[in-house]
Amino acid sequence: MKLFCFMGVSGSGKSSIQHSLPLRFMTNYTTRSLREGEIDGYHINQISREGFIKLNREGFFYETSEYAGNLYGTPNHVIDELIKGTPFHCTKDINGVKALKEGLDNKVVSIFIKPPSTNILAMRMIKRGDKPKDIEKRIKYIQETNELDNEKYVDYVIVNADLKQAQIEAHQIVIKELLNK
């Protein structure tokens, strides 16, 4: 089956697009704080840094990465379900996508969600209630790491200028990929 990995900078619309899909969501474990409207155990499995490190030492994760100072990990039991035939969608950074593609090859489909501009990106982060210092930190990180250039490493790119259109494009990609087993 397929694992649809969504990538994109914070505020690009990844969550709004991918949660419109009729697939199970692969919940990552992370040390990041919950955002407004997120549900612990569904959007993320929030865990302390110490707890994350302990689980990692115990072999709980298939892959781990660090993004903007927070740790993220894919639990092994979800990969087992994927291999047995359950399609999932998830959110990953470029390192997570590369690790999953290396281990799962053609089961992984990467989709980069791109904002129309960094100005619109900042406006979206303000609208969702991000703190000004966090927005500034994220925009600086995006610029310093050239994170928007990650689109050249993925299977598909969706420019999220209009949310409904971007959701339709994501659904079309999923249908195409599921039919092309």
TrEMBL record:
SUPFAM superfamilies: P-loop containing nucleoside triphosphate hydrolases
Domain Guanylate kinase-like: 1-175
Pfam family name, one: Guanylate_kin
Known catalytic reactions: GMP + ATP = GDP + ADP
Keywords for this protein: Kinase, Transferase
Top-level taxon in the UniProt lineage: Bacteria
Signal peptide (residue range): none
Gene Ontology molecular-function annotations: kinase activity
Listed PROSITE patterns: GUANYLATE_KINASE_2 (PS50052)
Functional note: Essential for recycling GMP and indirectly, cGMP.
PANTHER family: GUANYLATE KINASE, GUANYLATE KINASE-RELATED
Similarity remark: Belongs to the guanylate kinase family.
Name of the protein described by the UniProt record: Guanylate kinase
Species: Siminovitchia fordii
